[in-house]
Amino acid sequence: xxVLYLAVVPAFAAVLAAGxxxxxxxxxxxxxxxxxxxxxxxxxxxxxxxxxIAALAAYKACPNLEEADLAHLDDWIETADRAFAxxxxxxxxxxxxxxxxxxxxxxxxxxxxxAERCAAGPRPKID
Length: 127
Prior knowledge:
The protein is mainly α. The protein has helices spanning 2-20, 45-60, 67-90, 94-119. It has a domain at 45-119.
């Protein structure tokens, strides 16, 4: 009986150790990289930022705006005029001008979307 015990216990211990051994899952293949955003054709900083001011003025013409919105838009237009005049005077380097033009383009697209939403009707009233 002792011989059987000496043969079974080490075999059982080996099976138990093999079954309890930690195994990492196989590595997951990474997904293919996302494509880069297409290059946007930007105009000059002056043209893009003037376009944003024009979009703000067009948004101001929306008949569904409230009085407070009109006052905010006047402030935005005045602030943008001052900021763009200062940036033109500072004559930033070309990379900075391109970044400013890109920011003005994004802002213009946002203002146009807001004008489209405004044209759809007045803002819902919240009690």
